[in-house]
Amino acid sequence: MAKAPVLTPQAEDFPRWYQDVLNKAELADNGPVRGTMVIRPYGYGLWERMQAEMDLRIKACGAENAYFPLFIPESYLKREADHVEGFSPELAVVTHGGGKELEEPIVVRPTSETVIGEYMGKWIQSYRDLPLLLNAWGNVVRWELRPRLFLRTTEFLWQEGHTAHATREDAAAYAARILEDAYRAFMVDILAMPVLVGIKPSYDRFAGAINTLACEGMMRDGKALQMGTSHELGQNFAKAFDIQYLDADSKQQLCWTTSWGSSTRMVGGLIMCHGDDRGLRVPPRLAHIQVVVLVIRDEDGAGGVAEGIHDELVRAGVRSRLDDRVDTAFGRRSTDWELKGVPIRLEIGPRDVADGQAVLVRRDTGEKTPVPLTEIATTVPRLLEQIQADLLAEATTMRDERTTDVDSVEGVLEAASTGFARVPWPVVAGEQAAARLGTKAVTVRCIQREDGSVPDDEDEDGLYAICARSY
RNA sequence: CGGGGAGUGGCGCAGCCCGGUAGCGCACCUGCUUUGGGAGCAGGGGGUCGCAGGUUCGAAUCCUGUCUCCCCGACCA
Questions:
Q1: Is A91 (CB) below 7 Å from strand B?
Q2: pLDDT tens digits, one per residue of A9-23
Q3: Quick check: is A193 in a domain?
Q4: A396 belongs to a structural domain
């Protein structure tokens, strides 16, 4: 009799599989207030690694970290018409403080364009102060009607970047640079997710933006997930918050600003892009535990050998964890690490000690190979890189196989039931076409050039729309 | 807000129709035996059955009210 599967199989019920993974891999729990999320240590470890890698790339693009307040005066939101209209439905508003009703309600930030705009206005005097490149790590609150852990929660963690530039060209170039050098590079190189990039249709722009760029990843059920966005805000916020500078000719000029964000949603994307029926599969470059050295039974010195291997790996720069909890059955422990998606397991028991080897198990393929103890410190780092590359290749193949070129709305609907549809943009550009897509929950995810690059605007000739169902 | 469902140990559920003061699986604790893929056996701890009224000798079960949560649709990183 086969044992019941640890997780609901993906093919049977994908959302349930996702829930099962969150629970069994100890990633997150629902918080006490609807829509809130408790991120457990293993899940937070994934986020911390994402933060570290993203932070490097953001700083490499020249931005500096700063912090802005959680509380925003309601009046700030109202200064930019589109912005307040877009965010009003999802605001949490504080009306009481210190036991008294407040004179002016305070909004819990849904995003920080307004406060940061206010301070940019104060800090920027001359063209010598530009560009001003800021980034903030924090939490934001957007009241969600249908929350899902990591993918859409009322409170979530993210980074939001805000920049001010002297010219429109400079702002546009920076928004594009962040999308490419920070977001896309991170998602492809670290998360092993082959995201598509493009611009959003004008009706789907960020509230207050003149252009929105985005990265879209494909999940294993064929749905799309937006994983990072970068906005050109034009001079909308500069006008609303008086962000001006004196140019070299001593003339007052309005700044051009941008904003860009990536959130804990990426954790959900990671799970749904690489996870299989045995659990999570964490790409090695991201994994905060890359290798677990598992003592099968502590007999004939197996425990000591395992500890030695673990130490050797740590010295070789591998993020290794020793599992010597021999009071728990071996099968249980290996299943648990598999659920958590640790890329490599090294299993060491008495038989291995006798043979001078360890059994190396790849999480991505399940393949088991005996490796001489003397070769582990050189084999493992190489294999970690191989697994990283293989996961990216697998995800890329999946995406390509499930992306269909079509040339009609009917074709889009057909293709989007199982994956992405790539269609000439004019076919779905109209309001009417969008409405027809909407009946099957299909949306235009992004608009790109034929070669997959990011267009300047949606009016260029020869553009394609990527359409899909989405999270 | 429209449509559907559910509230019973930490989690998942049964019991309700035919009232008699609570049960199962998983998890947890102790002991022994185990440990090369989710251990076995024995013992044990833990629930005023969402809340408030009512009916009754007696309510998880029947009646009324109320609250909450989940699923499907419209907004969103």
A1: no
A2: 888 788 888 888 888
A3: yes
A4: no
**Host H or E run for residue A311:** helix A302-315
- Output the distance from A110 CA to B7 C1' rounded to whole Å: 33
User: Is there a single domain that holds both residue A148 and residue A52?
Assistant: yes
Number of structural domains chain A divides into: 3
- Are the beta carbons of A291 and A342 closer than 8 angstroms? yes
Kindly state whether residues A267 and A336 are assigned to the same domain: no
> Is there contact between A186 and strand B, defined as CB under 7 Å from any strand atom?
no
A462 and A318 in a common domain: no
For residue A141, what is the domain's CATH number? 3.30.930.10
Helix boundaries (H) for A61-112: 74-77, 81-87
In angstroms, how far is B59 C1' from A34 CA?
Answer: 32
A261 CB neighbours strand B below 7 A: yes
Structural tokens at position A471: 């999270």
CB burial of residue A4 (10 Å; 0-12, 13-18, 19+) = exposed
Q: What is the pLDDT of residue A419?
A: 93
Q: A270-303: per-residue pLDDT in tens?
A: 999 999 999 999 999 999 999 999 999 999 999 9
Q: Identify residue A10 by its one-letter amino acid code.
A: Q
Query: What integer pLDDT is reported at residue A3 of this predicted model?
Result: 59
Instruction: Please answer whether residues A192 and A395 qualify as being in contact, where contact means their C-beta atoms are separated by less than 8 angstroms.
Output: yes
Q: In this structure, is the CB of residue A328 within 7 Å of any atom belonging to strand B?
A: yes
Residues 301-320 of A with CB under 7 A from strand B: 302
Q: At what angle do helices A431-438 and A409-416 cross, to 10 degrees?
A: 30
Same domain, A145 and A259: yes
Residue range(s) defining the domain that contains residue A376: 291-383
Residues A34 and A172 in one domain: yes
Q: Give residue-wise pLDDT tens across range A355-382.
A: 999 999 999 999 999 999 999 999 999 9
CATH code at position A439: 3.30.110
Q: For residue A131, say if its preceding peptide bond is cis, omega within 30 degrees of 0.
A: yes
Nucleotides of B under 7 A from a protein CB: 1, 34-39, 68-77
Q: How far, in Å, is the CA of A328 from the C1' of nucleotide B33?
A: 14
Give residues 334-373 of chain A lying near strand B (Cβ < 7 A): 334-335, 338, 347-352, 359, 361, 366, 368
